[in-house]
Amino acid sequence: MSKTILVTGGAGYVGSHVCKALAAAGYTPVSFDNLSNGHEWAVKWGPLARGDVLDGNALDDAISTYRPEAVMHFAALIEVGESVKNPGNFYRINVAGTLNVLEAMIRAGVNAFVFSSTCAVHGDVGDVVITEDSPIAPISPYAKTKAVVESILADFSIAHGLNAVALRYFNASGADPDGALGEAHDPESHLIPIACQAALGQRDGMAIFGDDYPTPDGTCVRDYVHVTDLADAHVMAWERLMTRKENTFEVFNLGGGVGASVREVLDAVKVVSGVDFPVEQHPRRAGDAPKLVADIAKARAQLGWKPQRSSLENIVKTAWDWHRVNTR
Ligand code: UFG
Predict the structure, then answer these.
(1) CATH class of the domain at 191-222+257-326
(2) Among 27, 66, 91, 142, the one annotated catalytic
(3) Which of 286, 295, 312, 315 is 20 to 30 Å from the Cα of 254, by its Cα?
(4) pTM for the complete prediction?
(5) Is 13 assigned a catalytic role?
(6) How far is C-alpha 138 from the geometric centre of its chain's CA atoms?
């Protein structure tokens, strides 16, 4: 019988791509999702257990029904700007919700946990490449919730023998190369989907937030990593966890290892789409760090992971292909 993994947020963008990768590797992903931001159409590789991470009974039911060997936890609020306006929701869902998941696991004797974290736990690092040991100094409530959960995982691994990995994503982007899944947030705040919408004429144009940063072309530099590469890393993290003794908590950066500026990304979308959509210059968006680029040596060495699909061209092409077909 194949091993079952409970994937909270399995109907969301990264979670659904991870479900596909888990199924391809021979596991059965069970998506635990309340469908508040996720999509039922994205649950294709295993059952959907509809439920909320704030509902401990629903978590207990899902765990006793499906008897997972591990939990991968994606269910969370993600929009940085929204977290500044409504921090309570973020602490409730991202921190209290995660505690509920962990406590349900402990009640059921499940001790392997893969956590969806973010490079934003480091805040503004300046002009350096970020390693796992760079200082933790989150700026937004969103990033603070992720940093708090990482601390909880370290404490739970000591107190309860939890075996956990936190994967710190840089900019998750792109879409399933087979066209089965893509990025569909509502409202959308991410650069590449917005640019695809602009190229499709679904919006009048778009804005570059800030061109006076201390970067080569003045716009923010980010490390875009293909969502399918991220998905593969989750399978590798789980396979590593299976070989570990109890009491480990590890952190890995997942990025493409190179930076691209907002202007470079928009140029790539214009080339791939063949549409020269209007772009306006706007002031800086609050909370944006000038540059966030990953050192991915640890994931390469210890997980055996390497980003194979994360060239900017491939990220933009897969995103464009998905938007073109699915969001008209
Ligand atoms: N940007 C624009 N115009 C837009 C949208 C975005 O210029 O219409 C810029 C942003 O200001 C930023 C860059 O494009 O400089 C990337 O912005 P995204 O919103 O796509 O991504 P972020 O880097 O802000 O956020 C992502 C994830 C977060 C995570 C963060 C870590 O969405 O969940 O990376 O840096 F916390």
Answers:
(1) alpha beta
(2) 142
(3) 286
(4) 0.97
(5) no
(6) 16
